[in-house]
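Worked example 2:
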Amino acid sequence: MIVFSVNLIMHESQHKIERYIISRVKEIRESRGITQEQLSLSLGKNITFISQIEAPSKKAKYNVIHLNEIAKILSCSSKDFWPEKPI
């Protein structure tokens, strides 16, 4: 029970916009048939990089450089990761 509470706090420490962007990257990645491991390696990161970011219990997140490189890899615009209106 204590572990669950700690994970919940960590997850909620991310802002709504961060969670939105992580979800959009995941959605686009999956629509392209690219695994977490493939995207991690394409970014030159270790194989768990994307899984650490996509895990709801982790605080890891993308920075603007990551988003730009991911957009290149996924053949989309980095604008595709952002909501149309502010959250």
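The helical segments are 2-12, 16-31, 36-42, 49-54, 64-74. The CA atoms of residues 20 and 84 lie 11 Å apart.
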